[in-house]
Write a structure and sequence with these properties.
Elements (H helix, E strand, L loop, with lengths): L14 E2 L2 E2 L8 H4 L3 E5 L24 E2 L10 E4 L16 E5 L6 E6 L10 E10 L11 E7 L13 E5 L4 E2 L6 E2 L4 E5 L6 E3 L28 E9 L8 E6 L2 E7 L12 E5 L12 E10 L34
Antiparallel strand pairs: 1-2, 3-19, 4-7, 5-6, 6-19, 7-18, 8-15, 8-19, 9-10, 9-18, 10-13, 11-12, 13-14, 15-16, 16-17
Length: 334
Amino acid sequence: MFTNISSIEAGAPMSGSLGARVMPYAESICNNDPNVFFCEDFQDSATLPRGGNNSCNGIWPNPAWARSNYCFAVDATAGTDPTIVIPGSVTSSGNKVMRLGITPGANTIDGFLSWQGAGKNYTEYYIRYQFYYSSNVQFPTDLDIKQMFTQNEQFLDNTSADFQNGVYIIEDYHCHPNGVLQNYNDVPVVRYGYAPQFQGFPINDEYCLPLSPGLPADNVHAPSLQKNRWYTIEVHFKLSTSSSVGLLEAWLDGNLMYRTNRATCGGACGPMSYVFFTGYKNPGEPNFDGYVEYDNIVMSTAPIGLPGGGASPTPPPPSVPTSTPQTPSNLTVQ
């Protein structure tokens, strides 16, 4: 299931040829969990992203994630203070984050897994991170806000790419309450599948109607995000051309958000060896206010859980619905 996991990567290494971390991770799993192969909390300047006019000129010194190659302008601020306190933060003071300004085009933090060759052949893993949208962000009326993507080394939006998996917010998620089309622009969507037409999940009346903004995810209705608050999201990708084997599941603040078996890639289904986080907005759209912050990125071959030792996500029982809930049939009116 997981291949080429080396002792060099176990426990998110403290040193490597591309840089050496000065301080231990505050989150213990990043220091001693053998399932963890990447961590970044933006606390240590020795492992923060570096770049010039664009990210292609820079490197990511973290020994498990290296060689930036995205080629979009960088106006990210690494190691800055969060706008508001991060709930459940693993550090009591001085916590640092990565801030990406949401401007026309994109700004990114990104890299290949273990570019030196050890441990980059993952076709299934968990990735967990925390994110925050500033209060002046306008959730899209006709644009998408990308968050995180993984893909193989054929690289960004290549029409021959086997897949592009990730999390984003898009104007095209819709439901038909009372038969009337209505878009919901604050719902996180999981992108999956292969070019030229990447798929989104949920979409086309799946998980309808959405929850009111701020209510916890329940794997029945799509959650709606709020601005000016921190969220923790964990996603589990399993690549396969078979709809019975390919798996997507995601948790929001520790609550199951979505789960489905689908064909998640095409062709050879190469490993998910390239990872990038963005503050992307489509050029030419009407608003570019605000920014996004990221923190506590962890990648593992096993469930991760909330920062600070929160419970690891567990799969739902088979009876948990993954689409529009059915009306109970055993109710009586008194």
